[in-house]
Amino acid sequence: MDSFEINKIIAAVLLIALIVIGIGKISDLAFHVDRPEQSAYKIELDESTKILSTKIQEEEKVDIAALLALGNIEHGKKVFKKCAACHLINKGADNKIGPALYGVIGRKVASKQDYKYSKAMSGYDKNWTFEEMNGYLEKPQRYIKGTKMAFAGLRKEKDRASVILYLNQSSDEPLPLP
Length: 178
What we know:
Layout: H1 3-30, H2 47-60, H3 64-70, H4 73-79, H5 119-122, H6 130-138, H7 140-143, H8 157-169
Helix pairs in contact: 3-8, 4-8, 6-8
């Protein structure tokens, strides 16, 4: 196959792409649809729906004592290897991609002075409690929107509980378990 045939094939593909895009643009102009200013269907919530939404919110609260009972420190040490690519947990360790996590349970979020946190983390004015750490480890991007931590999270409750226990024991003053 010579270069002239290759050029014809490439030209045909590009022509088809341009035709498809052009037809899409022309149809958008011909069949323009305005969105209504207000919703066509108004949904009234009755008492049973309000009670159900309240129950769902209550179920989202985690019994942290029961969760921590699932984990153990040795398993947490193994699971923490996923975190070790970005974090160190040794006393006096330097920051890596993420801040050093020695003594993280109980301290204020984004409180390491020698680490540059994202605006989302810096603006999150709470302490790292067992509950906060559990929510964050489950899905960091959803828990604190705008965090620069690109970790997918730990879905398994046992893994999260074990990592929390491991982080708590890696401290000069571990917090008492609930």
